[in-house]
Amino acid sequence: MERVEEREGSSLGRWGTAAAAVVATVALAVALVRIWNLIVPHPPGTVCSLPLPPPPGCDGGARLPLAVAWTAILAAVYLGAAAWAFARPQRRTVVTGASAAVLVVLAAVAHHMVWTVPWR
């Protein structure tokens, strides 16, 4: 059997890199939208229930510091992965695939932390 090697310009490498980049970008976008939707306050006059963690918009700004911190972390990982992929073109598919996986995991952790941690 022949080994398929990834070469610069090969269609396998380009499609793998593109797919990983799309996954990473979508994961970042979804995470940021979900995190920041937790922060948006309800309109005045809305009655909030009392469970912990409180529903989105009923926390009085307690989630804001965590949302800012996780936004910075996710953006730094995304930009760092992109810079590393362009700096190491011979391993671009591996780097973007691994960074997409890390970003998906970090996005899930970030949403969970912003949702629950201020009340632990």
Automatic annotation (TrEMBL):
Q: Which UniProt keywords apply?
A: Membrane, Transmembrane, Transmembrane helix
Q: Which domain of life is it from?
A: Bacteria
Give the transmembrane ranges. 12-36, 67-87, 94-115
Protein name, as recorded: Uncharacterized protein
Species classification = Bacteria, Bacillati, Actinomycetota, Actinomycetes, Micrococcales
